Amino acid sequence: PTWGDQISATEIYSYRHKGGFPVALLPGYVLGGRLGATLEMNLIAALLLGQVFLLSYELFHSLPASLMTWGSMAFTIPFVVYMGQIYPETLAGLLAVWIIRQIRALPAESVWRNRRFWTGGIVIGLSLFLLVLLKTRYLPLAGTLMLFFFAHLLQRSARLSHKLTLTAIVGGLLAVLIVAVLLADIYLLDRMLQDRLTDSRYMSWMLAGYNPFNGAIGLLLDQEYGLIFYTPLYLLALVGIGLLSRQELRQTAPLLAVA
Hints:
The protein is mostly helical. It has 13 helices and no strands. The longest helix has 41 residues. The two termini are 33 Å apart. The mean pLDDT is 80.
């Protein structure tokens, strides 16, 4: 089958698994086989939790709150399960939290003439590309982080001219990306994407199957598999959101949107 083919009543074929994750596991496999790869995943989980602690401290400047955040994530599901599993979710989480910290740390003044800003922007872009290489499913996450990057820059830009320039640059980059995808579809994929997008029956089936609102209530509240019952982490998050001050809520609202 090729990308997008309907192979069952509820499934389409896609190249979701890319080469990024196997390459990332090479050090562990070379040094110790499966055990080495598992230990590498333990290290990645530890780095992820370290990034969560640093992000919490940067947001609230409270050591007790940061330690509580770190502990509630480190010793509950899903981290106690995923830290010993060879899945890309842990590495994707590490990249996502690290990218958020890098975006927040970008300089606010004279960004267009600041070498640190451009260096950081390039590193963030490469990290987003690596995130997609882990698994195609992380493409929406990478796009959301790009929107967070753009919104953060707009918020930091004091002058209207800077905001307009930034909007024009981002719009131009999106236009170039769309043209590149269309050319790749014509010359490399034999108009496969165009055929899929213009097939109304196929698109209605696909959109219905990938509607994020389908099952959203069950995802949270199902008594067997619902996230609120499956792990205390999500219930604690809801309580924590309710305890935030207005200033803290304004500061963390973009991160809630990313989540």
